[in-house]
Design goal:
heterodimer; A: mainly alpha; B: alpha/beta; 2 domains; six-stranded mixed beta sheet; four-stranded antiparallel beta sheet; 10 strands; about 25% strand; globular
Amino acid sequence: MSAVDGRIGARAPALSEDGIQALHAAHLKRQKRQRLQVFSVQIAILLLFFALWELAGRLKWIDVLLFSYPSKVFAQIGKDAASGELWGHLGITVGETVVGFVLGTLLGTLIAVLIWWSPFLSKVLDPYMVVFNSMPKVALGPIFIVMFGAGFLSITVTTLSITVIVTTLVVYNSFCEVDANLIKVVRVFGGTRTQVFQKVILPASFPTIISTLKVNVGMAWVGVIVGEFLVAKMGLGYLIIYGFQVFNFTLVLSSLVIIAVVATGMYQLVVYVERKLLTHR
Amino acid sequence: MEPVVELKHITHVYVSDREASLALDGLDLQVYPGEFVSLVGPSGCGKTTLLSIIAGLMKPTKGEAFVYGRKVDGPTAEVGYMLQQDYLFPWRTIFENASIGLELTGRLDQEHLARTGALLEEMGLSDARNLYPQQLSGGMRQRVALVRTLTTDPGILLLDEPFSALDYQTKLQLEDLIAGTLREKNKTAVLVTHDLSEAAAVSDRVIVLGSRPGKIRKSFDVPEHIRSARPLLAREQTGFNELFHDIWREMESAGDKE
């Protein structure tokens, strides 16, 4: 009888509202469980690595002089941190890196703006950019030392030489790829070239600029550490070279561990800033 | 009556590395105040080129364009332009998108901002003011684009296939809305479209262009009872089918000539 009732909408839905909510809750629970699993395996790998390394060192499977082991490395870090010696080195290196990637991104973007403004200049500079980009910039290190002295300045300039050109190329490219129709929107209102840049080109390229900032964090660390290898009397790169020269590999490895931690932290900070700035895209 | 848009013997040549080609050949056109004129024609007939010249985005190789009796020399606030898609800026809210024309023409004052708000409300978008474009449907976005064009109060609107990217139902609704709004505000409009039935339903005059090089083949005056009906209803008026077929035949012979 009820089957031939035939009134549309009179029927109860095949799945109740509670049933649908339950499916959603189950989905969230599954996701959470998977996240937890991934995280536990990640931690397990890290602990296993340190445990094996410690064991291998203590049981003399590896040459302790060369490879040290975690408890010695962390003792070294603890000692340097307590004596305050570490902070000076860390401060210098972090300072150089931050200056390197912030200034590199800004300067690179500025050059990109210049060559966007003048298509003629862009054509003229093109081959020079290609040559300079393909060149291993750290090879210029000795020249910078002669020019700017053995210290903070020449290390920063070495870092800039790595970050600036890549930034310029990537950002200029993104300027050129902005949809011509978005530019037309500004032009039909009689917008000037300056307005086209302010209202369209720059905001449209903002995500690219932020993402070069991320790439430049990594690049800046390369520049700074190599720069410090060459000249420094301070900094984590200097600690590595010094440890190498006096054959204190515990010092070398402890510097590496610190670099890994700080570089990751810096990267995460940029990712955080990116997320904050680009919430609506 | 003085025409608000007057094209005198417009000829345009596109020059590229490969060749120079004639896009428009000695084209004359007058559009009168409050008129709604559609340009239809096969692809390559220079419809969009014509709009760009009236808008001042492009200088014709030969000939002169006049808007309100003044020679066109670059874009002005008197001429509004609607593109094929909305091209709203994804980093701006709906209100910020709608008011960009005011920003660019230095009129970001209380009075104009209030008017922008009123226009958004008129288009049923007041709830969307602080949303971002990606949160809106295609039809709503194109309505925002219309508001953006109207905020600077242009007397002339150039419509470059503004309905082509929308689904059929939205397209019909928007035709009604835009044609109605423009008529009510007494704007002059030039519409470029591929859709012959759309051209016949919304316009006072339909101009068929021939292609390569573009020139005017024929101009059809839409009968009074069709043009006074809303676009959606105009399609059901007596004589609409005949008009449609006349335009269709003219288009076919324009295509055959190639």
